Amino acid sequence: MFLDDSCLPQGLRVYAIGDVHGRADLLSAMFAMIDADLLARPVGMRRLVMLGDYTDRGPDSRGVIDMLVARGDDPQWGRDLICLRGNHDDWLETFLVAPERVGDDFLRWGGMETLASYGVDTSGPRRPNSELSRELNRLLPAAHRRFLARLKPCHAEGDYFFAHAGVRPGIPLDEQDPHDLLWIRGEFHRHLDSFGKVIVHGHTPDEEIEVRRNRINLDTGAYASGVLSAAVLEGRDYRFLQTGR
Ligand SMILES: [Mn+2]
Question: Domain 12-242: what homologous superfamily?
Answer without folding.
Answer: Metallo-dependent phosphatases (3.60.21.10)
